[in-house]
Write a structure and sequence with these properties.
- The strands form 3 sheets. Strands 1-11-8-13-7-6-2-3 form an 8-stranded antiparallel sheet, with helices on one face.
- 32% of the residues lie in helices and 22% in strands.
- By secondary structure, the protein is an alpha+beta fold.
- A hairpin with a 2-residue loop joins strand 2 and strand 3.
Length: 298
């Protein structure tokens, strides 16, 4: 399976829009080989850990304590799990439920996420959004990672605004000051690509909406270079020296330290190459190979 063809009619057009413009794919697809409503119900019924669930009411985070109970084997240090009856109650009240870390619970999502990483070099995180009919999910916001929204059930109306500032990083804090650039309905089997920085908010239409959000972990040029520079500079004792107790009165020339930093920057390889190396997933069959090596060593 080519994951990009699953997400877009024209992968070349997707690459042209990448990080720049939203792209709606309206040719409906059957996403059941990745995830469907029956599997989501099964996952939630088995008991999802508290850390993997969030609840929103009218777009904002809501109290969710009543939906959890201790695990079968209790104890103060054991994380609680959600009950199906508790989830049904909050959904009936109009709240949106977010199931995070979906790769952990769904083999189909884990497989697709692995294929996406192999095809693109980017890691992903996957979240299921369940919104009752006529209600909003999360209030207008932007993400620092691009996302693909796969509509699994029902439909949702989306409003997108242009970025306040292009390509925001994790430490960026912004307010929405732009006009809407896209208003569309996402129907079952369709996919919407939202580049990072685009403000967006969705409302379920006549029936409940269930969609899978696939976030693409951003590997931006500047953070990649700074991370590698810090690693290399940290190995240089001269660059680790402390400032004197009164640095403003220290008239020693430190231009040679900037020269050392400049030389290190010139040695850093392209972030594109390092991103490909760091994002390379484990090969298929790694566990068997690891067990075999252990047995041979024993």
């Amino acid at each position: 399976m080519d994951p990009l063809k699953t997400l877009a009619d024209d992968p070349d057009l997707l690459m042209e829009y990448w990080d720049e413009k939203p792209l709606l794919t309206t040719v409906t697809r059957d996403f059941s080989d990745i995830l469907d409503l029956k599997e989501i119900e099964s996952m939630l019924s088995r008991g999802v850990p508290e850390r993997s669930l969030r609840v929103f009411e009218d777009g904002s985070a809501a109290e969710r304590g009543g939906i959890f109970h201790p695990r079968e084997r209790g104890g103060r240090t054991r994380e609680r799990v959600a009950t199906a009856s508790g989830l049904a109650e909050v959904l009936s009240s109009g709240c949106t439920v977010l199931l995070e870390e979906v790769q952990t619970f769904s083999p189909g999502v884990a497989r697709f996420a692995d294929e996406f990483t192999r095809a693109t070099g980017f890691e992903t995180y996957c979240v299921v959004f369940i919104t009752p009919p006529g209600h909003s999910g999360v209030k207008l916001h932007y993400d620092v990672d691009s996302v693909f929204l796969l509509q699994l059930h029902g439909s949702k109306s989306w409003r997108l605004h242009a970025p306040t500032a292009p390509y925001p990083l994790r430490q960026t804090v912004l307010e929405c000051t732009t006009e809407p650039v896209l208003e569309t309905d996402l129907d079952e089997g369709e996919c919407l690509y939202i580049p990072r920085g685009y403000w967006h908010a969705g409302t379920a239409r006549g029936s409940a909406s269930v969609h899978l959000s696939i976030g693409v972990r951003t590997r931006a040029w500047l953070p990649e270079v700074l991370r590698e520079l810090e690693r290399r500079a940290g190995a240089d004792p001269e660059l680790r020296r402390s400032l004197t107790p009164h640095p403003a009165q220290d008239d020693r020339d430190d231009s040679h330290l900037f020269d050392r930093l400049t030389a290190l920057v010139r040695e850093i390889p392209s972030p594109r190459a390092t991103a490909r190396q760091l994002s390379r997933p484990a090969p298929h069959g790694w566990l068997g190979a690891a067990i075999g090596e252990r047995r041979a060593a024993a």
